[in-house]
Predict the structure.
Amino acid sequence: MRYNAQSLRRDYTFDVTNEELLALMKVEDMSCQLDEHTSLVTYLNKLPGISRIEYDGHFGPHVFASVDTDEDEWEWRVEMLDRAIGWFMDDARRLCRFFPTVVEGDYETETGLDMVYSDEDFVILKADKGTVLVGHAGGIKKLKKADFVLETITADVDERRHLEDENIWLPVNPSRELAEVRKWVASFVTLPEVSELPTVSVESRWLSLHMPQDSRPVWANDDFIVADKNGSLSVTFKTRDSTGTKFYIEAARDQIMSMVRDANANASSGYRLAKYLENQVGSDLARAPKFR
């Protein structure tokens, strides 16, 4: 913790994977052909109360940032930091996977490209004159008539870009988690089906006694149980006094669901999910959080 003449500031370290950091640095390199690409540091510098962002890899796969904590609800800034870092890492990893020639600067096109949508199974780039490129596991699909999806994405960007309370316009970053966009892509590209999260056994865990009634556990460790119930996700955790539960809906729910899917498939992703939940719970956790 560092004290400043004008504010109280805390320094945070957000853990990422080597793959994510290398992908981000590759995308932000000069060889990337994206005309309107926004870097992570540019985006974070627009957020109120965030400063001193570093992620050059010299000290390992981490993102470092300082947060002013002199106002009420400053934890929102830490939460927004963690979400934004996750967005940019996912976008970079997906872009490198589905559009390697664009990242390397070898894609032959006479028009500028802009990354407008990011999904675990596909990425959408926009060129001029309404043309879009859909990169997926089977290759790249070029479409000259894509008004519907571009209008849908534009509406989403306009809705989430402006921070009303701070009167700040954030740089554009790709849309995600739009069911209508995935349905549109699935009409001409074979995509993996998004299956229901499997139920996990928590009978031997003390926290299972404190889950929301009639909820279905989908991920757990010694400190958390993530459960699904009627379109929302709950996270039950130990506190210093007893237990606590947080509920997530819409975009926040979808982000955690995606992380749970990754965690069920990969142990290292489980570590990332646990760190994310520690950051979400913050000082309410029974032990001091390590952040991400």
Notes: The radius of gyration is 20 Å. The chain is about 35% helix and 25% strand. Residues 2-186 form one domain.
